[in-house]
Specification:
The protein is an alpha/beta fold. It has 8 helices and 7 strands; from the N terminus they run E-H-E-H-E-H-E-H-E-H-E-H-H-H-E. The chain has a 7-stranded parallel sheet with strand order 3-2-1-4-5-6-7, sandwiched between helices.
Amino acid sequence: MTGGMLDPRCRRVLITGGGTGVGADLARGFAAAGAEVVICGRREAPLRAVAEATGARVLLADVTDEIQVERLFAEAGRCDVVIANAGAASSAPFGRTTLQDWNAMLAVNLTGVFLTFREGLAQIADWGRLIAVASTAGLKGYPYVAPYAAAKHGVVGLVRSLALEVARKPVTVNALCPGFLDTEMTDRSVDTIMQKTGMSAEAARQTLAAHNPQRRLIRPAEVTSAALWLCSAGAEGINGQAIAISGGEA
């Protein structure tokens, strides 16, 4: 978690998927920088743990449900920064990917961003930042995660298109695209690799870290630092970008 100098118009920040991983670190970072933070997700217990540490307000919502997202913003009040961070990943060979798997990945990773951004933009007043936490999977392909990569590519396209719509307003729209992160989601990927290959946990983690030319996993704090920068004074020219946080991964 890293502090930063926020634009003084950044008063309230809403973070989806705020109970674990990058979302929890974002909550800590924005709270430390002086913003009022609202976190949401489907599971109350991890959200409450983050709230106890940060003073964030907790709201429950499933970002794939239109009615729940509308209610989320009604309860949160006017937000200056909206970070669509909620996401999930699954892996399978393409030939064994079911329509249910496909729809589930698009629902949380793409439709959730669409619904979050649509409601967030509608209630932004005189200044705002929309930030999607995407992935390097939105910039390139990876084997065995076609639905996830397709969804993240969709997020990048959404960001670039919406950025042009709001370009003459005091609003920017950007995506942060980290490589493999040192989070609970990567822990689950490590478990999958171990089960399918017989690798040790350390070897499995090194396999993922090898995608990064720096040979390491990305820390959630690095994503938080980038988000804080996008909300700082002087970052208003950064719009429609998919910013890779990947150690130079092509």
